[in-house]
Amino acid sequence: MKRVAVFCGSRKGRDPVYMKKAKQLGEVLAQHNIELVYGGAIVGCMGAVAEGVLKNGGKAIGVIPEKLKTIEIAHDALTELHVVETMHDRKAMMARLADAFIALPGGAGTLEEWFEVVTWAQIGYHEKPCALLNINDYYTPLLELFDHMIEQGFVDQLHKDLIIMDSDPHKLIHHMKEL
C-alpha cells in the first residue's frame, strides 16, 4: 500500500476532534511511508490531513477541479497538485493513483466519492481496501443503514464486510495493511 486516497470534508466540523484525527491520520500515513492522495484543498479536514503528512516528511498529492481551486482554496505546498476539469476527472485520477481508500467525516461529496469506490469494489472493478475512519462515531449510523439494507435484501453481507472501520488512525492503517 503505497498511496491512500482520503475523502473528507473541506469544513472543520463542530467538534475539534475531527481536525485532530484528520491531522493524526496524515501523521500515521507519513510514518508508514504511505503517500496521500486527496482533494487538494488547504481548508477543513482536507487541509489537516495534508498538513499531518507534510509536517512529518510525507508526500501529499492533491487533485482539485479548476472550479474549486478558489472555493476550497488549493493547497500550494503539496508534493504534487493536479488541476483537473471536472469532479469526474478528479475521482478518476484519485482512483487511479490510490492503492486504498479512506473516508473521514464530510458531507455529501465525501460520501459520494467513497460510495463510488466501494461500489466498484463490490462489482469487481478493483480489489483495493475501502475504509472509514469513524471519528466521534460519525459513521456508526451508516453501518446501521448497511444492516438495514442487508435485512431488506438490497445488499449482501459480504459487501458490508468489505468495509474496514476503526476510530483510531493507527489501527485503521494496520487493518488495511493486513489485506
TrEMBL record:
**Keywords in alphabetical order:** Cytokinin biosynthesis, Hydrolase
Q: Which SUPFAM superfamilies match?
A: MCP/YpsA-like
Highest taxon, organism lineage: Bacteria
Q: Share an example GO biological-process annotation for this protein.
A: cytokinin biosynthetic process
> Which family does the entry's similarity section mention?
Belongs to the LOG family.
Among the entry's GO cellular component annotations, what is one?
Answer: cytosol
List the GO molecular function terms.
hydrolase activity, hydrolyzing N-glycosyl compounds
- What sort of enzyme, by top EC class, is this? hydrolase
Q: What is its EC number?
A: 3.2.2.n1
Q: Which InterPro entries match?
A: LOG, LOG_fam
Organism from which the protein derives: Alkalibacillus haloalkaliphilus
What's the name of the protein? Cytokinin riboside 5'-monophosphate phosphoribohydrolase
